[in-house]
Amino acid sequence: MSTAAPVIGVLALQGGVAEHLAALDRSGAVAKPVRRPEELADLHGVVLPGGESTTMSRLLHSFELFEPLRERLAAGLPAYGSCAGMVLLADDVPGAAEAGVTPLGALDMTVRRNAFGRQVDSFEADLDFTGVAGPVHAVFIRAPWVERIGPGVQVLAEVTPRGSGDQPAAGRIVAVQQGRVLATSFHPELVRGDERVHRHFVHTVRAG
Ligand SMILES: NC(=O)CC[C@H](N)C(=O)O
């Protein structure tokens, strides 16, 4: 790609849109909200924010964005999904049909929604993250985890066990990458002043 800043869209139907736009802006990308199919045309990459995957699925269909986005992803558009965005990028989500979630199938993985359950509904943890130097502070909010990955998928981060005792979250896969598609269970866009995960994605987009 050229040395010009890549144009990265943020799906702007629901959820943490402003936070992703700001983080991308600080990471050397030209960030723009996407609400209409024609706004997909000039993108070098796309971000699917956190929020509620059921609502986002419904809006993707009513804004007639689902099929054009699915096609762009199938044709190799680099993508990053956080939390609900991770759910939407998966190709297998148990209970999806009953919940009204239609995954886009851009990543060969099974993702379980709201996986951490009531005990650890929302929590924060420091993680080792492949490709990022130093621990990443991760904020989980009714987060999914990755239950199965296909052969082409790399694990970037798991929840690190702490001390002893029962830790339902420990060892769970919470960040993955397949080619130029990235997904995290957590929300780097909520940690102000730390754009390392977004920079990793922008770097991945530029590497194409
Ligand atoms: N913070 C989030 O994005 C929550 C995701 C939500 N539980 C879902 O499945 O869509």
TrEMBL record:
Pathway this chain belongs to: Cofactor biosynthesis; pyridoxal 5'-phosphate biosynthesis
Pfam family, one: SNO
Residues of the active site: C83, H187, E189
Gene Ontology MF terms in the entry: glutaminase activity; pyridoxal 5'-phosphate synthase (glutamine hydrolysing) activity
EC number, as in UniProt: 4.3.3.6, 3.5.1.2
Catalysed transformations (reactions): aldehydo-D-ribose 5-phosphate + D-glyceraldehyde 3-phosphate + L-glutamine = pyridoxal 5'-phosphate + L-glutamate + phosphate + 3 H2O + H(+); L-glutamine + H2O = L-glutamate + NH4(+)
One cellular-component annotation, GO: glutaminase complex
Assembly mode: In the presence of PdxS, forms a dodecamer of heterodimers. Only shows activity in the heterodimer.
HAMAP family: PdxT
Sequence similarity: Belongs to the glutaminase PdxT/SNO family.
Function: Catalyzes the hydrolysis of glutamine to glutamate and ammonia as part of the biosynthesis of pyridoxal 5'-phosphate. The resulting ammonia molecule is channeled to the active site of PdxS.
Protein name, as recorded: Pyridoxal 5'-phosphate synthase subunit PdxT
Gene that encodes the chain: pdxT
